[in-house]
Amino acid sequence: MRTTTGWQATGAEGLKPARLERRELRRDDIAVRVDYCGLCHSDLQALHNHDGHSPLVPGHEFTGVVSELGPEVTGFSVGDTVAVGNIVDSCRHCPMCRAGQENFCHEFPTLTYGGRDRVDGSTTLGGFSREYVVREDFAYRLPEGLDPAAAAPLMCAGITVWEPLRALDVGPGKRVAVVGLGGLGHLAVKLAVALGATTTVISRTQDKADDARRLGAQEFIVSADSAQMTAARESFDVVIDTVSAPHDLVPYLRLVGLDGTLSVVGYLGEITVEVTDLLIGRKKLSSAGSGGRPATAELLQFCADNAVLPDIEVLPSAEVATALTRMERNDVRYRFVLDMSDLDEAG
């Protein structure tokens, strides 16, 4: 086994620096020196739910540099800048995998952390570390022009909103509303605008109206204002709902026009919807999560070609506890990214 340094959960004491084991490179593996790793709300949730009985190293959206190659790797060279997301393997033979939708693998994809390695059964440890070993097929060359720090959140937040935008054929002539302006929402706005859609932001208060317009949105609706919501009834072809807490979907379904779609990507728990709320207007309710390999590569190239990157705040990895606390308070606009280079000193 090879070793590296990272931030590992230790129960009630939170994250502590630790020596981590990585597998020796298999024939189609690459070793990646992790330079930047984004923080996601799912990292926070994993830490809150951690029982201490299994190893936990969070982090599933990161960029870095290839440092070593397995003997059969053909797609990368040492020194290439790459990105890795929240899926690092899949069965590769089910209908979803064959369709390039490894995120929906029938045998469940291997997650970047907290997953089960398909070869040796070990628990995967994530990108809050200085090195990661991954199959070359699940690493992506970072296109020229993409800042590696800012590109990291594209590998989770970005692809999560990109897949429904593409699946719903968002582009010129489409009217899109984005509910919630956080890590997911602000990227949904930027991508919808870059795709050519007329884009509106829906938020609980007026506080983020200026930010919404800075990001490219043409309109802003306060969801707590019943007059504004009534005026916007049936105004949109696509509504992307990025709110992570439980909430009533009916007000947002009313904003969807004839044959339009409400795509819920923020909250993945149980919901209740009256069929008549879908029936009137032939509306559709959908969801999405992560993305397959073709869509992820497409997203990275699109962002490079159109200068689309998330708004980030970079912190040294030693300040991970501060970042997690602030994220829990929604004190970030709009995504934290950890600079992992300080782990060299910790090692």
TrEMBL record:
Keyword Zinc: yes
Alphabetized SUPFAM superfamilies for the sequence: GroES-like, NAD(P)-binding Rossmann-fold domains
EC number, UniProt record: 1.1.1.2
Catalytic reaction list: a primary alcohol + NADP(+) = an aldehyde + NADPH + H(+)
Annotated InterPro entries: ADH-like_C, ADH-like_N, ADH_Zn_CS, CAD-like, ER, GroES-like_sf, NAD(P)-bd_dom_sf
Keywords: Metal-binding, Oxidoreductase, Zinc
Pfam families: ADH_N, ADH_zinc_N
Domain Enoyl reductase (ER) intervals: 11-338
N-terminal signal peptide: none
Cofactor: Zn(2+)
Root EC class: oxidoreductase
Family (UniProt): Belongs to the zinc-containing alcohol dehydrogenase family.
Designated name of the protein: alcohol dehydrogenase (NADP(+))
